[in-house]
Amino acid sequence: MAAHVGTIAIAALGHRSLPLVLHCHSSRALPLVAMQASTDILWLGDYPFYTVQPTAGMDAAFARNSERVRAALGADEVLSISRVGSSAVVGMPGTPVVDMVAVCKAWPPTASQLDALNRAGFDDRGLAPHAEDDRWFYGGDEGAAPGTLGRCVVHVVREGNPWTAEAEAFVAYVSAVPKAFAAYSEVKLEGARLAVNGRDGMRLSEYKQRKHKVCMRVLREAQVWARKQAAR
User: Fold this and answer.
1) How far is residue 29's CA from residue 9's CA, in Å, rounded to a whole number?
2) 38 Cβ partners below 8 Å, 6+ apart?
3) Nearest Cα to 72, choosing from 107, 117, 111?
4) Residue 45's Cα: distance from chain center in Å?
5) Nearest to residue 131, comparing CAs of 221, 230, 224, 1?
Protein backbone atom coordinates (compact mmCIF):
# COMPACT_ATOMS: atom_id res chain seq x y z
CA MET A 1 0.00 0.00 0.00
CA ALA A 2 1.17 3.50 -0.64
CA ALA A 3 3.12 5.18 2.07
CA HIS A 4 0.21 7.49 2.74
CA VAL A 5 -2.30 4.69 3.26
CA GLY A 6 -3.22 2.25 5.03
CA THR A 7 -12.78 0.94 9.93
CA ILE A 8 -14.10 0.54 13.14
CA ALA A 9 -15.56 3.52 14.94
CA ILE A 10 -15.88 3.49 18.70
CA ALA A 11 -17.26 6.04 21.12
CA ALA A 12 -15.63 9.36 20.35
CA LEU A 13 -13.45 11.01 22.95
CA GLY A 14 -13.25 14.71 23.63
CA HIS A 15 -12.99 17.02 20.61
CA ARG A 16 -9.36 17.68 19.62
CA SER A 17 -8.18 16.47 23.01
CA LEU A 18 -4.47 16.68 23.73
CA PRO A 19 -3.11 13.19 24.43
CA LEU A 20 -1.65 12.57 27.86
CA VAL A 21 1.84 11.16 27.70
CA LEU A 22 4.15 8.96 29.68
CA HIS A 23 7.91 8.76 29.41
CA CYS A 24 9.84 5.56 28.92
CA HIS A 25 13.54 4.92 28.98
CA SER A 26 13.80 5.99 25.32
CA SER A 27 13.25 9.59 26.53
CA ARG A 28 10.51 10.05 23.90
CA ALA A 29 6.91 10.79 24.86
CA LEU A 30 4.32 8.08 24.20
CA PRO A 31 0.53 8.50 24.16
CA LEU A 32 -0.92 7.21 27.41
CA VAL A 33 -3.67 5.38 25.56
CA ALA A 34 -1.10 2.97 24.15
CA MET A 35 -0.16 1.67 27.63
CA GLN A 36 2.56 -0.50 26.13
CA ALA A 37 6.07 -1.38 27.20
CA SER A 38 8.85 0.48 25.45
CA THR A 39 10.13 -2.90 24.26
CA ASP A 40 7.10 -3.03 21.93
CA ILE A 41 8.36 0.04 20.08
CA LEU A 42 11.21 0.44 17.62
CA TRP A 43 12.23 4.02 16.86
CA LEU A 44 12.85 4.76 13.18
CA GLY A 45 14.44 8.11 13.81
CA ASP A 46 11.65 10.05 15.53
CA TYR A 47 8.92 7.73 14.26
CA PRO A 48 7.66 4.89 16.48
CA PHE A 49 7.10 1.45 14.97
CA TYR A 50 4.88 -0.73 17.14
CA THR A 51 5.79 -4.41 17.09
CA VAL A 52 2.53 -4.93 18.98
CA GLN A 53 -0.25 -2.85 17.44
CA PRO A 54 -1.86 -0.31 19.81
CA THR A 55 -5.26 -1.33 18.45
CA ALA A 56 -7.50 0.39 20.97
CA GLY A 57 -5.60 3.66 20.69
CA MET A 58 -5.75 3.58 16.89
CA ASP A 59 -9.47 2.81 16.95
CA ALA A 60 -9.99 5.77 19.26
CA ALA A 61 -7.90 8.03 17.01
CA PHE A 62 -10.03 7.02 14.03
CA ALA A 63 -13.24 7.69 15.94
CA ARG A 64 -12.15 11.18 16.99
CA ASN A 65 -10.64 12.24 13.71
CA SER A 66 -13.22 10.74 11.37
CA GLU A 67 -15.86 12.84 13.12
CA ARG A 68 -13.75 15.96 12.60
CA VAL A 69 -13.33 15.09 8.94
CA ARG A 70 -17.06 14.45 8.53
CA ALA A 71 -17.91 17.77 10.15
CA ALA A 72 -15.38 19.66 8.00
CA LEU A 73 -16.57 18.14 4.73
CA GLY A 74 -20.23 18.39 5.71
CA ALA A 75 -22.21 15.44 7.02
CA ASP A 76 -24.62 15.63 4.08
CA GLU A 77 -21.75 15.46 1.58
CA VAL A 78 -19.96 12.43 3.04
CA LEU A 79 -21.19 9.00 1.97
CA SER A 80 -18.75 7.04 4.12
CA ILE A 81 -15.50 7.23 6.05
CA SER A 82 -13.56 4.02 6.53
CA ARG A 83 -10.08 2.88 7.40
CA VAL A 84 -7.64 1.68 4.76
CA GLY A 85 -4.04 0.52 4.62
CA SER A 86 -2.27 -1.96 6.85
CA SER A 87 -3.12 0.10 9.92
CA ALA A 88 -6.73 -1.02 9.39
CA VAL A 89 -5.75 -4.68 9.82
CA VAL A 90 -6.22 -5.68 13.45
CA GLY A 91 -2.97 -6.84 15.00
CA MET A 92 -0.71 -5.66 12.18
CA PRO A 93 2.58 -4.20 13.45
CA GLY A 94 3.61 -0.84 12.06
CA THR A 95 3.56 2.88 12.60
CA PRO A 96 0.45 4.06 14.48
CA VAL A 97 -0.73 6.61 11.90
CA VAL A 98 -4.33 5.85 10.96
CA ASP A 99 -5.23 5.98 7.27
CA MET A 100 -8.81 6.67 6.25
CA VAL A 101 -10.79 7.41 3.11
CA ALA A 102 -13.74 9.80 2.95
CA VAL A 103 -16.04 9.09 0.01
CA CYS A 104 -17.96 12.20 -0.98
CA LYS A 105 -20.91 12.92 -3.25
CA ALA A 106 -19.01 15.65 -5.09
CA TRP A 107 -15.33 16.02 -5.94
CA PRO A 108 -12.92 17.85 -5.80
CA PRO A 109 -13.29 19.40 -2.35
CA THR A 110 -14.58 22.95 -2.42
CA ALA A 111 -12.65 25.93 -1.10
CA SER A 112 -14.87 26.01 1.97
CA GLN A 113 -14.26 22.30 2.63
CA LEU A 114 -10.51 22.77 2.27
CA ASP A 115 -10.62 25.68 4.71
CA ALA A 116 -12.69 23.67 7.19
CA LEU A 117 -10.28 20.74 7.02
CA ASN A 118 -7.36 23.09 7.59
CA ARG A 119 -9.05 24.62 10.62
CA ALA A 120 -9.76 21.11 11.92
CA GLY A 121 -6.03 20.40 11.82
CA PHE A 122 -5.65 18.58 8.50
CA ASP A 123 -3.00 19.97 6.14
CA ASP A 124 -3.72 19.76 2.42
CA ARG A 125 -1.00 17.72 0.69
CA GLY A 126 -2.51 17.88 -2.79
CA LEU A 127 -3.28 15.01 -5.15
CA ALA A 128 -2.19 11.56 -4.03
CA PRO A 129 0.36 9.88 -6.34
CA HIS A 130 -1.23 6.43 -6.33
CA ALA A 131 -4.74 7.18 -7.64
CA GLU A 132 -6.73 9.67 -9.69
CA ASP A 133 -9.23 11.99 -8.07
CA ASP A 134 -7.75 11.51 -4.61
CA ARG A 135 -6.77 14.51 -2.50
CA TRP A 136 -4.98 13.69 0.71
CA PHE A 137 -4.50 15.44 4.01
CA TYR A 138 -2.28 14.91 7.03
CA GLY A 139 -3.25 15.84 10.55
CA GLY A 140 -4.93 14.40 13.60
CA ASP A 141 -4.96 15.08 17.31
CA GLU A 142 -3.74 18.47 18.42
CA GLY A 143 -0.25 18.20 19.86
CA ALA A 144 0.48 14.74 18.41
CA ALA A 145 3.90 14.71 16.75
CA PRO A 146 4.18 13.51 13.13
CA GLY A 147 4.16 9.74 12.88
CA THR A 148 2.83 9.15 16.40
CA LEU A 149 -0.40 7.76 17.78
CA GLY A 150 -3.21 10.20 17.09
CA ARG A 151 -1.94 11.27 13.67
CA CYS A 152 -4.00 10.46 10.58
CA VAL A 153 -3.85 10.47 6.80
CA VAL A 154 -7.15 11.29 5.11
CA HIS A 155 -7.96 10.56 1.47
CA VAL A 156 -10.93 12.47 0.05
CA VAL A 157 -12.30 10.76 -3.06
CA ARG A 158 -15.37 10.79 -5.27
CA GLU A 159 -18.03 8.12 -5.16
CA GLY A 160 -17.03 5.21 -7.39
CA ASN A 161 -13.29 5.85 -7.27
CA PRO A 162 -11.78 2.46 -8.20
CA TRP A 163 -8.90 2.91 -5.75
CA THR A 164 -11.36 2.68 -2.86
CA ALA A 165 -12.35 -0.86 -3.85
CA GLU A 166 -8.69 -1.84 -4.20
CA ALA A 167 -7.87 -0.44 -0.78
CA GLU A 168 -10.81 -2.22 0.82
CA ALA A 169 -9.83 -5.49 -0.86
CA PHE A 170 -6.31 -5.20 0.57
CA VAL A 171 -7.63 -4.82 4.13
CA ALA A 172 -10.15 -7.64 3.73
CA TYR A 173 -7.61 -10.03 2.19
CA VAL A 174 -4.85 -9.48 4.73
CA SER A 175 -7.38 -9.71 7.55
CA ALA A 176 -8.92 -12.95 6.26
CA VAL A 177 -5.94 -14.88 4.91
CA PRO A 178 -3.34 -15.87 7.54
CA LYS A 179 -0.62 -16.43 4.93
CA ALA A 180 -1.01 -12.87 3.63
CA PHE A 181 -1.05 -11.46 7.15
CA ALA A 182 2.11 -13.36 8.04
CA ALA A 183 3.97 -12.33 4.88
CA TYR A 184 3.20 -8.65 5.30
CA SER A 185 3.72 -8.49 9.06
CA GLU A 186 7.03 -10.36 8.82
CA VAL A 187 8.50 -8.08 6.16
CA LYS A 188 7.39 -5.04 8.13
CA LEU A 189 9.02 -6.31 11.30
CA GLU A 190 12.19 -7.32 9.48
CA GLY A 191 12.43 -3.99 7.68
CA ALA A 192 11.82 -2.01 10.84
CA ARG A 193 14.44 -3.90 12.83
CA LEU A 194 17.02 -3.44 10.10
CA ALA A 195 16.11 0.21 9.66
CA VAL A 196 16.66 0.89 13.37
CA ASN A 197 20.36 0.49 12.69
CA GLY A 198 20.26 2.62 9.54
CA ARG A 199 21.79 6.02 9.08
CA ASP A 200 20.12 8.93 10.85
CA GLY A 201 17.48 10.51 8.65
CA MET A 202 17.19 7.37 6.51
CA ARG A 203 15.54 4.95 8.89
CA LEU A 204 11.89 5.56 7.98
CA SER A 205 12.57 5.59 4.23
CA GLU A 206 14.64 2.40 4.49
CA TYR A 207 11.78 0.67 6.29
CA LYS A 208 9.30 1.70 3.58
CA GLN A 209 11.60 0.54 0.79
CA ARG A 210 12.05 -2.88 2.36
CA LYS A 211 8.31 -3.54 2.66
CA HIS A 212 7.33 -2.17 -0.77
CA LYS A 213 7.99 -5.32 -2.83
CA VAL A 214 5.94 -7.59 -0.58
CA CYS A 215 3.23 -4.96 -0.32
CA MET A 216 2.84 -4.83 -4.10
CA ARG A 217 2.62 -8.62 -4.27
CA VAL A 218 -0.03 -8.74 -1.57
CA LEU A 219 -1.98 -6.00 -3.37
CA ARG A 220 -2.06 -8.09 -6.54
CA GLU A 221 -3.13 -11.17 -4.60
CA ALA A 222 -5.87 -9.15 -2.91
CA GLN A 223 -7.39 -8.14 -6.25
CA VAL A 224 -7.52 -11.77 -7.41
CA TRP A 225 -8.97 -12.85 -4.07
CA ALA A 226 -11.62 -10.10 -4.16
CA ARG A 227 -12.75 -11.11 -7.65
CA LYS A 228 -13.11 -14.72 -6.54
CA GLN A 229 -15.09 -13.64 -3.49
CA ALA A 230 -17.42 -11.56 -5.65
CA ALA A 231 -17.99 -14.47 -8.04
CA ARG A 232 -19.22 -16.81 -5.31
Assistant:
1) 26
2) 24, 25, 26, 30
3) 117
4) 19
5) 1
DSSP helix/strand/coil, 13: coil
Please provide the size of the chain in residues: 232
Q: Which of 114, 20, 110, 122 is nearest to 67 (CA)?
A: 122
pTM attached to this predicted model: 0.80
Q: What is the pLDDT of residues 8-60, one digit of tens each?
A: 222 222 222 222 222 233 334 444 333 455 679 999 888 999 999 999 999 99
State how far the alpha carbon of 184 is from the alpha carbons of 17, 65, 70, 156, 212, in Å: 33, 26, 31, 26, 10
Q: Count CA atoms within 13 Å of residue 91 on its CB side.
A: 9
Angle at 72 between CA 67 and CA 78, to 5 degrees: 70
Q: 4-26: buried (b, 16+ CB within 10 Å) or exposed (e) per residue?
A: bbbeeeeeeeeeeeebebeeeee
Q: Are 174 and 219 in contact (CB under 8 A)?
A: no
Q: In whole angstroms, give the CA distance from residue 83 to residue 133.
A: 18
Give, in order, the Cα–Cα distances in Å from 114 to each of 54, 97, 155: 30, 21, 12
The predicted-structure confidence for 79-110, as pLDDT tens digits, reads as follows: 999 999 999 999 999 999 999 999 999 999 99
Q: What is the DSSP string of 66-113?
A: HHHHHHHH-TTTEEEEEEESGGGSTT--B--PEEEEEEESSSSPPHHH
At 161, the amino acid letter reads N
